[in-house]
């Protein structure tokens, strides 16, 4: 089974660390190819970053063609998710949607702990989009910059993340924590050990769910709004993204 993991930002070290997290939970016969766009922001920390990153996601989906059995978008904003599903028949999973699903299997309510406070609204929008407003009891920012998670494997950020998680569990009366950044994948196990509750890393959740969809023989429906994009020319730098 071939899985394509797309890091929508352009930081190579984060691509590698998320690929390592993905391989730790993948089946022995699963091959994970990790890529990143050739253009775009080094981290995704707002709406502007997300729009540019979404185009980069499409660049990588188009480049992969039909060689992959499933695609994982390894950014908690799930940038370009619906567009990627139009562009391929392979299942496409965003790590936020995957994490919400996984958390709902192991708790009646969960809290999201993410990076910058300014990005909380993006996670809140996704909670509503995916229909989890009755299960998600709060979204909490830590004001940890995304790229700070790349220093020392994120270990320096663990105390602040632990404090934020404990406060969220108490305030929200939640039973689980969803980590709101793909860069937190390397510290999820340590946080779960410290907190004693399920801590869901969306990268790992997306890998396992993607493997399940492939095993079930399920593909992205091409009936309705996920039909292949209509053929037309794209101008300027977006020319290669046209159909």
UniProtKB/TrEMBL annotation:
Catalytic activity, as annotated: D-5-benzylhydantoin = L-5-benzylhydantoin; a D-5-monosubstituted hydantoin = a L-5-monosubstituted hydantoin; D-5-isobutylhydantoin = L-5-isobutylhydantoin
Enzyme class: isomerase
Positions of transmembrane segments: none
EC number(s) on file: 5.1.99.5
GO molecular function annotations of the record: amino-acid racemase activity; hydantoin racemase activity
Similarity remark: Belongs to the HyuE racemase family.
Name used for this protein in its record: Hydantoin racemase
